[in-house]
Design goal:
Helices cover 41% and strands 27% of the residues. The protein is α+β, with helices and mostly antiparallel strands. It has a single domain, classed as Heat Shock Protein 90 (2-Layer Sandwich). The chain has a 6-stranded antiparallel beta sheet, covered by helices on one side. β3 and β4 form a beta hairpin. α1 packs antiparallel against α2. The chain is globular and about 40 Å long.
C-alpha cells in the first residue's frame, strides 16, 4: 500500500470537522465525462450554485462572488485533473457567518511542486496586485495558460480566503482547495 503524505497550506478546515448549517455537493468521476464537456459545464454549475445560495442566504453580492469563485476553482480542477477514476467534487457548506467552498481533484504528483511553490508565494505576499501583474507578464512571455491569476483574483477582488490540503501518493496527489467567503456585512 502506498503511503499518503498530507500537507496543509493556509488555514484549511476539513469539511468533516466543520459545524455547518447546510451543505450542497456535486461529484463526478472524470472517466464518465469528457474533459471538454465538463469544462463547458463549469459555468452552468457555478451559476446554479450562486443562484441557489443567493436564494437561501439573501445576501447582497453573494451570487456574483460565489459564481466567480466556483467557476474559477472548477476550471482549475478540470484543467489540472488527470483522466482517471478519481472524482472532481465541489461542496458548499454554509456556516454561521461564511460559506466554505471545497473543490477536490487529483493530479500527477510530479506536477505538484510548482503548484506548492505558487501557493506558498500567494499566501506570503503582501502585495496581491503586484503578484497579479507579475503572473500575467510571465504567462504572456511564456505563452502559458498557467498564470494562476484566477486564484489571486479570488483573494484580491472577491475577498475570499484560500487554503489547500494536499494528499500525496507517489503517482497521484489529491488536492482539496478551500475558499472561505465571509457573509458578514462589510463596514
Amino acid at each position: 500500500m502506498d503511503e499518503t503524505k498530507v500537507s496543509i497550506m493556509g488555514n484549511f478546515i476539513d469539511p468533516e470537522k466543520t459545524d455547518f448549517e447546510g451543505s450542497l455537493s456535486f461529484s463526478i468521476k472524470t472517466t464518465y465525462i469528457e474533459k471538454k464537456k465538463l469544462w463547458k459545464s463549469k459555468d452552468l454549475t457555478a451559476e446554479f450554485l450562486g443562484n441557489f445560495w443567493n436564494t437561501i442566504l439573501d445576501t447582497s453580492n453573494i451570487k456574483s462572488t460565489l459564481h466567480f469563485v466556483c467557476a474559477e476553482l472548477l476550471e482549475n480542477a478540470v484543467n489540472h485533473s488527470i483522466k482517471s477514476d478519481y472524482l472532481i467534487m465541489i461542496q458548499l457548506c454554509f456556516g454561521f457567518d461564511e460559506l466554505l467552498v471545497y473543490v477536490k481533484n487529483s493530479d500527477k504528483t510530479s506536477n505538484i511542486k510548482e503548484f506548492e511553490d505558487f501557493i506558498s508565494t500567494l499566501l506570503k505576499t503582501d502585495n496581491l496586485h503586484k503578484l497579479f501583474i507579475q503572473r500575467m507578464k510571465q504567462a504572456k512571455k511564456s505563452s502559458s495558460k498557467k498564470s494562476q491569476v484566477g486564484l489571486i483574483t479570488i483573494i484580491k477582488d472577491r475577498g475570499a480566503k484560500l487554503s489547500w490540503k494536499l494528499e500525496k501518493k507517489p503517482d497521484i496527489t489529491r488536492i482539496t482547495t478551500l475558499a472561505r467567503i465571509s457573509l458578514k456585512k462589510q463596514e
